[in-house]
Give the backbone structure.
Amino acid sequence: MSAPDTEAFERQVEAFRRDFEAVGNELRKVIVGHADIIHGVVTSLFIGGHVLLEGVPGLGKTLLIRTLSEAVQLDFSRIQFTPDLMPADILGTNIVMESSDGRRAFEFQPGPIFAQIVLADEINRATPKTQSALLEAMQEQSVTIGGTIHRLKKPFFVMATQNPIEQEGTYPLPEAQLDRFLFKLVVGYSNREELNEILDRTTRGVSATIERVISGETLIAHQATVRQVLIAPHVQDYAVRLILATHPGGPFAPEITNRFIRWGSSPRGAQTLVLASKARAMLDKRFNVSFEDIRRELLPSLRHRVLLNFEAQAEGKDTDEILLEILKSVPEIAETPIARSA
């Protein structure tokens, strides 16, 4: 970068940090604790990706997403997924409309997917047919009804929740749909101090006022800024080797991968890992990605993109546990340099 470009980029990074913190502060007015979850949700917003929140009922997943929708100037809709929900209930449909002169014509009535932040609540309760209706919208940011493509307004985010313990009457998300989520964030229980704070906030008749602190146009600009952050070839290769280390039978696969993993991460995992690391670097006032950035974004980026085999399930192995073991086995600097084309 030339000197003027560097100065302009520094201003963009500072604006990114300021707006990122402002959105996080609005969420913290309502959500107690869960710092990693808040960071992951806001990161997805500033990168431009969808998020899957997993946790038992009552931990604040829906509340977090609702609060996020209040903090940004974007259209919001909620879809409560149930087994009888049909694709048309999400996407919309063509209906016959009669004009004042008696003429009839089909008119498209958009469904709740035509918002900018969509809360897909308990997504694993809908049938695969309905779940698949989200695929085009999440990936292409458009839907096709009656042969006509309808574009969704940008920016567009799907924030989905699911309950991991109640499996009766549910439909696990297919791998293709899981891969379209930028992050999978696991929401855990609150500790003693946090639970006391939750009671103080919710049982005394006091409610927080959430302010709108960022617009959709600003979010789109921040998403472009993230992609300008530099990543050195050896740091990028570290991310690549971590992805390849999840592929059983591959040249970089450690013993734990070959033993417990059935399918490894897709290239989307590498893209997510690098983009999330770039965002973390900017938050730390750096203009280049570090090895530590890569390590800290590994679990939310890959835990839903790695499928365990039967042996892992039989032994009670957890995906996060295996990914952390893989992380320990991959050195920062490769023994052999990467071969690059001229």
Summary: The mean pLDDT is 88. The CA atoms of residues 299 and 324 lie 8 Å apart. Residues 3-28 form the longest helix (26 residues). DSSP finds 15 helices and 13 strands in the chain.
